[in-house]
């Protein structure tokens, strides 16, 4: 009888399973004489010697936690042949390396990172959050490279950033975070609550508050002032101020009205100018009322509100208002307050308002015009009914 060397196969030769999963691996061998078949892991026999099957051996693996190689050994009088079956325990990816910031602008941060995983990952997820805000984390998904630029950020703001990897099992733990700050920009808003008053008949003091959106470290302010507000601001007189929220401007002409605007600047550039205010160069007169607003209350009344000038003793307010642009202005005087209701107006009609404060020494500058329309009349026409 012709003898045939043993030959065998392992089906399949490798498996991918979840942590704690079960799998059966089968070794089939043929030959003449038929070989005995056993399984080994390293030097350890997994098949009892007195119970070694012939031709076929199934190894049952349960609660598999780690990847491992298993060796199938086929033996006969003709020799010994081996083959290896690979069992890969597929688990969540490991945390990537800590992100490294390679570039920042005023509105973006570019990071790179090491994968931290020997096996390929499907994609990466970036989570980031402003350190100064309590809002939710922002998420960027489906990133297939280890370099990414996060855009749409706020200037001069500190951000904390994490990266995690995703494979077919799911999303792994995040990396260690990196904290970095975006670059500066010119301020996006003007100084707030600009107010002026006279220290003497030729010197005024101007005060303000920081912009809501400084976009960086405020390096200073520029105060522009003029008696000809219709001229371009570039033609106005300019007064530079270091990092302070008030300044004095002297050598003014007496009994004149000056228009004043203020801007803030960072190392990058100038921000927008504040709304104009007016200051009368008459010692002791009040500054303009601040935050002057109008809101329709009914079809015949409008409510006005404002903040009083700083550090002034107001004896009364003077209100000028008119219907539209071409009618004559009406004057009303009233005691110090922060709101006033104008009544007896026409329905669905626009009115124009100006307000000034008066002290014992005189009347201050009027505010810029504020416009508001009364509500439309709710009354409707009714027609007689024919019976």
UniProtKB/TrEMBL annotation:
Compartment list: Membrane
Topological category with respect to the lipid bilayer: Single-pass type I membrane protein
EC numbers, comma separated: 3.1.3.48
Catalyzed chemical reaction(s): O-phospho-L-tyrosyl-[protein] + H2O = L-tyrosyl-[protein] + phosphate
Gene Ontology MF terms in the entry: protein tyrosine phosphatase activity
Keywords for this protein: Disulfide bond, Glycoprotein, Hydrolase, Immunoglobulin domain, Membrane, Protein phosphatase, Receptor, Repeat, Signal, Transmembrane, Transmembrane helix
Protein name in the entry: protein-tyrosine-phosphatase
């Amino acid at each position: 009888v012709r003898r045939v060397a043993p030959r065998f196969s392992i089906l399949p030769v490798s498996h991918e399973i979840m942590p704690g999963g079960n799998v059966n691996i089968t070794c089939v061998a043929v030959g003449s004489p038929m070989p005995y078949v056993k399984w080994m892991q390293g030097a350890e026999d997994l098949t009892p010697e007195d119970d070694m099957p012939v031709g076929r051996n199934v190894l049952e693996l349960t609660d598999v936690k780690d990847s491992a190689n298993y060796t199938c050994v086929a033996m006969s009088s003709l020799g010994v042949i081996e083959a290896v079956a690979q069992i890969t325990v597929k688990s969540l990816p490991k945390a990537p390396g800590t992100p490294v910031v390679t570039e920042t602008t005023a509105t973006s941060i570019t990071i790179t990172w090491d994968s931290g995983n020997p096996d390929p990952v499907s994609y990466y997820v970036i989570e980031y959050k402003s350190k100064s805000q309590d809002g939710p984390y922002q998420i960027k998904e489906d990133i297939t490279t280890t370099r990414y630029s996060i855009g749409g950020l706020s200037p001069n703001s500190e951000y904390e950033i994490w990266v995690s990897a995703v494979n077919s099992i799911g999303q792994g733990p995040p990396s260690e975070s990196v904290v970095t700050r975006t670059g500066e920009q010119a301020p996006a808003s003007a100084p707030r609550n600009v107010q002026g008053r006279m220290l003497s008949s030729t010197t005024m003091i101007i005060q303000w508050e920081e912009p809501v959106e400084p976009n960086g470290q405020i390096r200073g302010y520029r105060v522009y002032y003029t008696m000809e507000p219709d001229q371009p601001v570039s033609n106005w007189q300019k007064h530079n101020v270091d990092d302070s929220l008030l300044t004095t401007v002297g050598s003014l002409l007496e009994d004149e009205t000056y228009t004043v605007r203020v801007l803030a600047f960072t190392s990058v550039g100038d921000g927008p100018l504040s709304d104009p205010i007016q200051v009368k160069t008459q010692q002791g007169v009040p500054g303009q009322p601040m935050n002057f607003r109008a809101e329709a209350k009914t079809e015949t009344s409008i409510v006005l509100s404002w903040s009083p000038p700083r550090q002034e003793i107001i004896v009364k307010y003077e209100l000028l208002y008119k219907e539209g642009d071409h009618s004559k202005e009406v004057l009303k005087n009233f005691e110090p307050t922060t709101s006033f209701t104008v009544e007896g107006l026409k329905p669905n009609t626009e009115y124009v308002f100006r307000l000034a404060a008066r002290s014992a020494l005189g009347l201050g500058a009027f505010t810029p015009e504020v416009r508001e329309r009364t509500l439309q009349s709710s009354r409707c026409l009714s027609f007689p009914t024919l019976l």
